[in-house]
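[job 4471] stage=fold_predict status=RUNNING
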Amino acid sequence: MLSDIEQSRLAISKATDPKKKSRLGQFFTPATIARFMAELFTPNSHSHCRLLDPGAGIGSLCDAFLNRWISGDLKFKNVHLDAFEIDPFLQPYLMQTLGKYENISGFSMHIDISDFIITASEGISGNLFVKPLPSYTHAILNPPYKKIRSDSKHRSALRRAGIETVNLYSAFLALSLSLLKPQGQLVAIVPRSFCNGPYYRRFRKFLLTQAAIKQIHLFLSRSKAFKDDDVLQENIIIHLEKNGEKRPIKISTSTDDHFYDLTSQNYPVEKIVLPDDTEQFIHIPTASAVASIAQGKNISWTLSDLKINISTGPVVDFRVKEHLRKMPGPDAVPLLYPAHFNSQGSEWPKPDIKKPNAIQRNNETEKWLLPNDFYCVVRRFSSKEEKRRVMANVVNPADFPEMTLLGFENHLNVFHANKQGLPKTLAYGLMVFLNSTALDEYFRTFNGHTQVNATDLKQIKYPSRDVLMALGEWALNQLELTQKTIDEKLAAAG
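[job 4471] inference complete, writing structure tokens
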């Protein structure tokens, strides 16, 4: 039988306008996830617990934590809870959830209806007109997920507190971590998008400087952790310890929030955050094939070692609308989009696509054009339904006869040699390597969303130039390239 709080969660989730959910970035935590998160806290030296729930909703997370305390599993003499909830509609539900603990000896609480980001940021930044929040021994949170505009009051307040980040969830995480006492613990369920990419670089540095990662739990299904809210997002649960010692990190996985197939394994810290990685990507290893890429001695070259460059396509179409052409003409050159590529290669022009097929060549556009030559390209975006994250193709100059220049639209990543083409076999070798299952699975250890950035592709280690060219020579002699033949060839080459 469902608990009262779980019945409330399901009813509220179903009744809440999706536009409101989107506006507030508001998704409620299922009871099974709340219990799992509460179980991650480990007993420590704190005899008095000061608990923070900065986006309490209807109280699912703090309820799970308090249940574990009163069961005797956490040996606190007393617990004080500060629960923040800005939504007036949810506040009565929160009060109802926490009301059952009011008569528990040693328990006290405060429900704060102010904006957590503003309140916490102003206190941390030393605003003399704002009473700072106390330090906490524990924090448990399912923060809102929504981008923060660069000109918003939240972004300004965060900057005053010394925090630079682009999403509400990472802001909640950074502020909560700042408010923890040394050896304080934080458990949060968040999207894993912060694990890679340039937008979260400062946030990753902040997090890894402030705390030690104790555990990361990954839900293998994109759709089931918050299935009642129709959330298609790759979520993780992360357990942090403020100023904690860097010890092996537990990586656990389950398909969904039932945890029936829970598995876990400990990894050295340097396997999760590579020591020589200036971007400090956070890797979450989950598949046996990952090891062949991450640990392979023959896959240890950077793009810089290989004298290969990678850039996003320089043509941003909405900025050059007046120069775009539906079809090629005497004064225009090919403009390549992801839609021009398929498993067989490139198809240009395509009269039936909505995008233009060409861009006018003139003094203004020529700086964005590259010589018609061999390149390897990777789509920057894949759909949620596609099995592969990384999808590579080769640009063959023979497909664009009598053309001297090419345009690459911004939704493509382009491998080139200092704005010139690549040797034919090298371009094909890159394509083979990037289309392997092992590479795709390795890529997923640090990339949890559908975007493939040039920065991500720079972080990957590659086979040597000789091996890549041998792979390219092999590919050019195949009647058909399949996933099976690519994977078998890469395994043999490695």
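[job 4471] summary: DSSP finds 16 helices and 22 strands in the chain.
[job 4471] exit 0
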